[in-house]
Every structure is written in C-alpha cells, then in structure tokens.
C-alpha cells in the first residue's frame, strides 16, 4: 500500500465533525476505497476546549493554521470553517503552502472562486468542492464528468433545503411562512438568522457554481436575479394547488440563442413534475443535456453526515489522483474563455401566475384582461370564486398567462396595479412548463 | 495540447452510431472537456455496406478486428457490438493487444466480468462501463466515486426501461400485458424477442454490476432470484392502486446482518414513493448509504444518445486518466475478497400482497386468514368487494400482510392454494416499505 494521504481539517463544526468521524471511525473502509490510508493529522479550531460531536485525539488539535502550513505530512486541507473572509485567507495560504484543498464553502467559491482557483493553479495544487452544492449528492461530478459529453441545455435545482422545508410545510399543512420558519429553526433546518437561505442568496451561490461547471462561464453572483420565499402567502400556495401546481424555490439556468439565463425564484411547478415531489430538506437537480436528455439527482442537501460523505469522496478522489486531473482539465473560473453571454433578465420568457385583489363589480375582469390583451399577453386560465361575505366587496382574481417576457410582464403588472379596481399590488410568480 | 486519444468502435449499431456522431460532430467540445482531442481511428463492423444513422468516413470502416489490434494509434476500443461470446473474445483480444476498453455490455460484464477484468489487470489496461447500467445516468461513477465514503446499505432500481414502459401503460391506461408489449415493440422500446427484458434477466445483469461496485462482491447472476412481468394481470395493478400502491419491476439489494439480499421482482411501491413516479422507458436507482442517507439518480435508461453520452464520458475519463486510476483502485471482480455472504432467498423478509379467487360463502375469510395466523403472518389490510353478478359465486379476496420471510410466505401460499374454497392458485407480490 502506498503512502498515506495526510489530512488537516480547518474548522470542526457540524460538517468538520462528520468528516472527522468518518476518518477516525472508518479507516479500513476509506483505505480500501482509496487504495491508501487516509490519515487525519491536524484539526484547526478556534476553541480547543469546546464540546464537539466527535472525540478528537488531543494532540491533533491546534488553534494555529501555521502548524498545518508548515507540516509536510499534511497533503490535503479540508476547509469547513464557513464564512468568507477568513476562509479565503486560509485557502489561499494553504495552496501557497503546497496543500491541495477540499472545501464545502459555496459562498467562498461563488464570490472568490476565480481568485482561489487561479492561486491553486499557480501553485500546482487542486481544489475539490463536491460538498458545496446539494450536500452528499454527487452533482458536481455528474456535471464535470458523467455528463461531460453533453452541451448542458438547462439546470433546474431545489438547492436550498431550508426554503424547501418551509415551503413543504406551508403547502402540506397550510401554515404561514412565519410558523413554518419557526418550525424549521426548531428542527435545526434554519439558522437563527435565516436571511441567506430564504432570500435566495444561498441558492444563487450554488447556481453560480453549477453554471460555472456546466457552461464554463464565470458568473458574478450579483448577475443572478433572485427572489426569496419570505413574502409567499398561503393564499398563493392554495390557488396554485387548485390549478394543479406546487410552489418551489427553484434555481434555474438555461441556454437560449447562446445566451444564458440565470435566476432564483419561487416558481409554480406542475404537481406531478419530478421536482414538485421533492419534500422537506431534500435537494434535487434536474439537468438536461443534448445527448443524455433529462436526468435528476436527489438527496439530502445538508446535514452533518451527507455533507461529510461528499467531502470524504473528494478526499478519496485526491488520494486516488482523480481530483487533481479533474481540476487540471476543468480550468474553472480561469476567465478569458466566456463565450456565453448572460441573457438580460427582462428577456427571460415564462408563463406567469398573477393574483389580484379586485373590486367585486361588473367590468373588472374586462378591465384587467384588456391590459393583458393590449400587451399581447394571452391568458390560459382564470379563477374567481364567489366572494366570501366577510371580505366585503372585494374578490381574489387569479390569472395564468401564456408565455411572456419578464420585462413585458412586469410592465403589465405595474399597469394593472394602477387600475382603480385593483385594491392592492398584484402578486405574481413564473410558471415552469 | 497533448497527444490525441485514438479510438476504435467495435460495432456500429444504435449505440455505436451515437458515439460516432459525438466524436465526428463535436470534436471541439470533446477536446475541451478532455484537454486533448478524441479521434475516431477505426470502426469494426460486420457489413460495411449497411445503412447507418451516421456517415462514417469510408477509410475508417473495416470488418477485421485485427486491424484495430495491430494499430498503435488506437488507444481505447469501445465495445458496443452486444451479445456475449464474440464480444468476450473481442474484449480479451483488445486488452491483450494493449488497448483500454469502454463497454456498454451488461451481459458480458455480469457473466464474464471476472475474466475480463483479470485480463485487463494482467495487461495493465483499464475497463470502463458507465453505459452498462441506466443508460446516460452516471450511476456507476456515483457508486464508485461520489458515494465512496459510504457503506451502501441498499440499492433499489428500475433498471429495465422496456418493463417500466409496459407497466406504466398497463397502470395508466389499463391495457393488458400483451397490448402494452405490442405498443412497446412499435415504439422501439422492446425487441422482437423481449424475453431478457421482461423476465428480469437484463435487470439482474445490471444489479450484479451495481452490487459488485457497491459491495465488492462477485455475484453469480444465477444467484439473483428473479421474476418477470409477463404474468402480471391488470387485476393486480387495479387492486394495488386501490390500496395506494403502484407495481414496478424492481432490482433490489440490501445488507442485513452482513448478508446481502439480491432479487429482481415486481414489487408494490407506495404511490408517492419516488421510484413509483418513474414513468415510461426511464430508469432510476435509489441508493442508501450510511453517511449520505438516501439518494436517487434518474434518467433515460437506454436509447442511442443517452447511452452514447455515457460511453463518451468514459472516453473522456480515459483521455484525462481518471478511468485508469478508478479501475486500478476498484479491484472489481478480483475475487478472494468476498467478505459479504449472500442471503438465502427464503430468508429475505417482506410484506406481501396476496390475491385469491375464493368461493363466495360464509367462513371463507376465516379459513384463509387462519392459515396465515397459524404461521404467524399478520394481516395489515383486506379488500373484498361485493361479487359482480357475472362472476357467479366467486369473489376476489386481496390481503396485505405484515412482514414475513419469503420462505414462510411461500409455504403459506401453497397451503392456501390447497384449501377447497380457493378456486385457482393465488397471486402474490412483495410490498416495499
């Protein structure tokens, strides 16, 4: 058996503890899969006395990154410290010190991927990041290797488990966003400050990483249009259900006329569509390639051991030598090769769901629909129920449109909001087809 | 850019033509993904004058395998000739001549994998076979690499698209097996002789390959219990539906007490289970690992371009050098390391669906259920509808049991068949839980 692969953990929180558990508790299994031992040599933490879900041998623990940088027996460092600034500093120092890096840090890669990958290339090191998207589901490898013969035509993903957990509870049990969020926090599916999860930022980070691999483009996260779930009303979930749809937070990218559309938004999916079936904290990614057709990858999108599974797969790939070859071949974030242009968000086309609170009097439907008609947006279905007594003289009006460009639709929605018969700003979501 | 990878196609039928199309029509794309050109150097066919769905440059076509064996500019041969005997001879000759091999031939690997892999190892060559299971879905890579940190606990797959196409039509449109088969043949989803697809043999071949990777055991195909779909009655599909289940042909393996259970059978799946949603000619594999939890991989299980996508991914992996490292590390079919024992089929435990045609008279339900009770098999639900006039004095009785061993259940079914009140041999299927 060849030389052991020496490993340092940078950070030992939830995911780091999971990786430590696999390395310390399953050495034979991992050595068999990698054809050489995987040996944990250092664990860098802020507080060595903190209680952790894994028992670390005392002599491995240090608070000083320098000890890893100077240790020639450490070949690969696992960055699971989270955050962006210190993680960036650590990763750049690690590759400069000759260490390969495995990271689960999607924010770091989405925001500073180009810098990190250039630095790694400059020092002849590799970076692997399977755990950065969709937890233990090997979606990075699927795109970079399994589907490498394809032009990827589209990607659609449920990439944020917190949001999907909240939406699933709102849909299945009729609870409000705030109740569902509180429950997600109780179950550990949402942070005390859930902003980055529920406002679409986390999903946008992951989409940037997937799009980078699928299309070879360096996408600034700021260029990804995003809309979160915090203002979703159960009224819209109910109407969507009545129409045969489920609302999911989708991260989407697709190629059209050599332009790449990228966005994160709540979307109405047909109830029987595969992604509409994804419940709770699960993730799933639907990838359409020009040769393979449509494929789906599904599993737990977060959590200690699913994420540790992906990190450890990267460590095995490093031990076998595959990860280095993949990294050399992919030329990720290397810039200068972006042949694909981003599609202006206003040009993205979609069907739309539109809900209005309108006066319950003759002529209102004609007023609203004539605004749509004047703008060449045609209607596929309408729901208006008899007004319940308590709502006085107002009713909910729901319209599903045929395809329109986002820009045109938004202008129309603004015009409709200005109609005297419309009581409050309309609510709208794109509809997947 | 480094030296091109020289490729020979052995066989140019449906899949071979698809691979040739990718190589001839997408040279830039493939060179970018592999960081070196992929060049088609030879195509070995039986009849060079046959019409094919791809235009092959005349000078590449030969009928003589020898020209490939002797050509030093061919580095990798793609075996897509199908069948077992000649394919075996060809692959053994190719590795002996120093060629790496990519194959889509599940029967060859399931029946002669040990011999092929030993020969490759002996000559220092690699064999890659992503296309042998689930078409373009990268399930081999997922098991061998993406989930490499896991002990795989169970695998459940819809691995035969023909059977799934037939069952989907029987379920959704109520047509008989024979009608659905005829339709599958019209659509090109079933061969003129569909035996290997519908009797579970093809799914068993694929399960043997997956189990080999997941558990490191060399499973003789004959040891996989299998039952096909040809005798499935729409009556059972209807009753299953009434109980909230869908019948699917599942290939399953799971570890219990360090014993590996392996079987292919029609199984009742809860209607909302992810695998129950897989329609038409699609394949899906649910893999549960001890770290990652449950994951699912889904896509087209056959067809020209999906299969060509997987073959070409293997070629890219060969060009990059990953496939060789994976092959060296996996030690597939190498024998002597089988620590896992096969579970005797009679010891496999399951819930059961049982349908009987019984006399419509007092005491019959008591007679039948007392046979189950005497054998400690408890009942979870029963359906008996009022007898329709035209069936005279007989009724269908459907019983869902709690868990029982296959051996015990089979003995009970035989006892029930001997009851005077039972008009014809009972029908039973396992129920997934």
Would you kindly provide a written description of the structure presented here, covering whatever features stand out?
2 copies of one chain form a homodimer. Chain A is α/β, with parallel strands linked by helices and about 425 residues long. Chain A contains 15 helices and 18 strands. The first copy, chain A, has helices at about 15-25, 25-35, 65-70, 85-95, 105-120, 140-145, 160-175, 175-185, 195-200, 200-215, 235-240, 305-320, 320-330, 365-375, 405-415; strands spanning about 5-10, 40-45, 60, 75-80, 100-105, 125-130, 150-160, 225, 245-255, 260-270, 280-290, 295-300, 340, 350-360, 380-385, 395-400, 405, 420-430. In chain A, strands 7, 8, 9, 10, 11, 12 and 13 form a 7-stranded mixed sheet that branches. In chain A, helix 1 packs across helix 12 (about 305-320), helix 5 (about 105-120) packs parallel to helix 10 and helix 7 (about 160-175) crosses helix 8. The termini of chain A are far apart. The model of chain A has no long low-confidence stretch (mean pLDDT about 95). Chains A and B meet through helix 2, helix 6, strand 12, helix 12 and helix 13 of A and helix 2, helix 6, strand 12, helix 12 and helix 13 of B.
Which descriptors apply to this entry?
15 helices; seven-stranded mixed β-sheet; elongated; alpha/beta; about 425 residues; 18 strands
Structure in a nutshell:
The structure is a homodimer of 433-residue chains. With 433 residues, the first copy, chain A, is an alpha/beta fold. The first copy, chain A, has helices at residues 14-25, 27-34, 65-69, 85-96, 106-122, 139-146, 161-173, 177-186, 195-198, 201-215, 234-242, 304-320, 322-330, 364-374, 406-417; strands at 5-10, 38-44, 61-62, 76-79, 100-103, 127-128, 152-158, 225-226, 245-256, 259-270, 282-289, 293-300, 341-342, 349-359, 379-384, 394-401, 404-405, 422-431.
